[in-house]
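Example record for the data management plan.
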Amino acid sequence: MKFQRLLIILSLVLIFSNCTDVLDMAPDGNMQMDEVLSDPDKVEALLNRCYEKIPQKGYSYWFFESLVVAASDDGYTSDEAQGVPSTDIYTDNTSASSHAMRDSHDGHGGNNTGYWANSWQQIRLCTQFIELIDGAAVNKETDRGRFKAEARVLRAFFYMELIKWFGKVPILEQTLPFDADFSTMTRSSVYDVAKFIVSDCDAALAEPNLPWRIDTSNEAMRVTKALALALKTKAMLFAASPLHNEGQNYWEEAYTTAKDAVTKLKANGYELFTKTTQPAVYGTGPGAAFRQLVTQNADYSATPRDKETIFQVRSGDVFVWHIGYIGSNMANTYKCGTSPTQELVDAFETIDGQPVLNLTKPYLDEKHLQPNYNTLNTLYSPNDPYANRDPRFYETVIHNGSSIVFDSKTVKIETFVGGAHALNFDITNRSSSRTGYYHNKMVTPGASGNNGINNSKWKYYRLGETLLDLAEAAAEAGHLNEARAAANEVRARSGMPELPVGLSQAELTLRIRNERRVELAWEEQRYFDLRRWQEPTGNLSETCKWFTAMVINKKSDGGFTYTRQNISGNPRGGWQNRDLLLPLPLNEAATLEAVTGQKWQNPGW
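Corresponding structural encoding:
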């Protein structure tokens, strides 16, 4: 082919150093494509390019910040004065030209158009591969179908990332030539994009050579039929949600998609991880398996220990003990990082399955200082707030009186005023919690400066999450018994009783939403849940404007008093209507608006 100069609009085409047509180029930018397609090894290298730029998540954001958690109502960072991405979010110092979340460094490049440009680049690579693989050389014919299916699932993955962050985006089924007419391009509805994701995943599921599970470490992170099912479920869940459904009711379709996914996943060997295989590390309590699941990598084996994880990244784990744990109040630690909020603590039920707060209206005041207690709860006491709680609470939150093993010693945590691990409202103090709590869900028990243990690689999808996707869609579609059953299956893992029989549809939906918050805390789900549950005209003022800490004072008799206090006298940023979606990069939106005559930027930016 003749080399041609590339037109870049919307970041839909890749930029190589010599600005040549990507369809003429090999992955390294030096060979013509026919040379690549005639060599099976280079064809595999081309497929490998499709796997690039999958965000690492977790603590791999710039400065080891668990950014997406810190921007939800589950966490509050102690790094807000350090110039990390959350600093701009907390102060509302964000714009379409520079947005800390969209542009942050987390393994996706962070080049001022991170999520947007990188996702589109990967979509183009996947589309290019799908178009070329039928005529390419392969080592064995069975590879051809599997490779094509993988590219389809990866394209679906990156489209899912786009709609999570940006909402409506164009659907591009073919690679665009340099002289394409962009004047007719439009942003498709989230439902239409979801259906495109479903079609890609269905095509991959029909490929007999795409496996259900990866069972060898040398194929780590390769996509599977299981991921295709999880992506279908997630796409339809977003399409049906109030923020994206454009006034249409897609819940029945979301329900049938999720039910089919869960049925097929279970039929092909996926199940919840319900019993710890390391009781010496995790104990034998009801939360042990839950904690082991989230702190250990999924294993690649024909008979895996972990049959729940559907997709985890290949790299990105860090020594989490030195950040986001209990800060430099302990030896060899770096900073506190993000700590659980009182709002997250309030979400954990008591062991009898009763919510602590009235889920319809959790707080009687705007600033969350007056909890609206659930009158049916008889086990919770404001004077002993950490007793009798959901076992997942103790595996997620370090609180006053917690005991942890650190540097081979048992340490009792003192978050009371004057205690060794007391909270501190000084924003320049990186070592102390802003909330009176510390995080431990992603930390392997016993990890410390002298016993460095990596946290697990990021798990993008697991069966527990897909079960809760099914529970939500079933409840919204009116299939209440199936909704209860799916949620109860997840709750049973941690020894929690079943949800009550006889809840109304609205009541059950609230309980399942709260179940998602508890089960999926710190897994970067809450950020998106809060947004997709809003109407397009809504905002996050009830959940993400004011945050509370628990100030504990020790009494002379050894007991404690517990007082809720706002972390700051000013509201935290990131709660306005515009914050429901990220802005498109300013130059991209402006260019497309000039070319198409349509508004492309998300509302408020």
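Summary line stored alongside the record: Strands lie at 75-77, 309-312, 338-340, 397-398, 403-406, 409-412, 438-439, 459-462, 548-554, 560-566.
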